[in-house]
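Quick one: structure for this chain?
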Amino acid sequence: MAKVILWISFAFVFYAYCGYPLLLCLWRWLARKPVLKAYWEPYVSLVIAAHNEREQIDAKIRNCLELDYPRDKIEIIISLDGPTDGTDQAVRRYEGCGLRIIHWPVHAGKSAALNRALTAARGEVSVFADVRQRIDPQAVRELVANLRDSSVGAVSGELFLIKDGFEHFEEAKDAVGLYWRYEKWIREMESQIDSTVGATGALYAIWRDGFRPLPEDTILDDVLIPMRIVLLGKRVVFEPSARAYDKVACCPEAEFRRKVRTLAGNFQLLAHMPELLLPWRNPVFLQFLSHKISRLLVPYFLAALFLSNCFLLSGTYLVLFVLQLAWYTLAFAGALAVRSHNANRPPTPVPVGDR
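Got it. Here's what it folds into:
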């Protein structure tokens, strides 16, 4: 029995991180679906939800006002969600620049703020952005170009991480690690086959008429909204030329909180949209199962792999056990080293929004 559990666990983990990417490569080679992009200028609503963002909101608004898109074809909606730090006063200084401000006096959460903004939006295309990141001047044009294809219902931009400040951010080099490069490659492959599973929360666009009000407890709007669009029979594609720039997180605790939040959001998604688990309802069932569900289950299979290996300590199984032990030891030592390093310098507050 231990052997059966070990090999099933090994096969599952291998498929989640290696088998699925190989399947995507083959699938893309056999049945690639190109997007028929065309540059045009629909009326766009750029929506930003903000709670207590006093320190960052000025730079974000200036960034949005500098986008390379006709000013008479774009409205910038700032949906204020019960700010208490003066964010509302900071935003109102830009009212003469064409901003639309929706002020809700009580903090009700990001989803409620988005619902209010989309109810008031006039654009046929809605672009979602977060306060923290900076948007490339050409990003909106690149997003809406994909929506010219009638099969596309949503477009995800790319999050580009930088080490330094936001000065000349367009010229910065991507500072993401190997895993995040791997994750972006997966999204691009999924997009070229049919649809990517979710969008980059920092920047994505949808047709306005594809939006439905969000449950107010929604954690991952950037997954729930795109997956709703997939269930409507439209594609969700990835556009690497539409970039949002963010600073690299240097606080492992904040990164851990972000991971926990994402994990909780994925479980919540299944509660809000159980039909995603029905292959006859979900056009990207295999991708959803392989990309999202398998990641939720991998920790359990890793535990099963290690525990079953404890009962098999001869020959090849001993080698596998030693490799696992070495891997976990190095991971634990690395975590301790990072924690010790950060303990010797002032803490840096790092937002924990989803990527």
